[in-house]
């Protein structure tokens, strides 16, 4: 096995940053999606109520 040089190609900080950003994106996306679904549902209800 070769001894890694000054730069082995794998940065722990970069890996953690990418993983954190990905996880944050998933959480943010799911919250945003549920918010938009709720908003759309209430908007549909208001439209249906207004037309009858």
TrEMBL record:
InterPro entries xrefs: ATP_synth_F0_esu_mt
Subcellular location: Mitochondrion inner membrane
GO biological process annotation, one example: proton motive force-driven ATP synthesis
Pfam families tied to this protein: ATP-synt_E
UniProt KW keywords: ATP synthesis, CF(0), Hydrogen ion transport, Ion transport, Membrane, Mitochondrion, Mitochondrion inner membrane, Transmembrane, Transmembrane helix, Transport
UniProt similarity note: Belongs to the ATPase e subunit family.
PANTHER family: ATP SYNTHASE SUBUNIT E, MITOCHONDRIAL, OSJNBB0050O03.8 PROTEIN
Name of the featured protein: (wild Malaysian banana) hypothetical protein
Protein species of origin: Musa acuminata subsp. malaccensis
């Amino acid at each position: 096995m070769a001894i890694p040089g000054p730069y082995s190609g794998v940065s722990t900080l970069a890996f953690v940053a990418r993983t954190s950003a990905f996880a944050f994106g998933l959480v943010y996306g799911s919250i945003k999606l549920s918010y938009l679904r709720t908003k759309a549902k209430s908007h549909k209800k208001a439209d249906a109520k207004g037309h009858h």
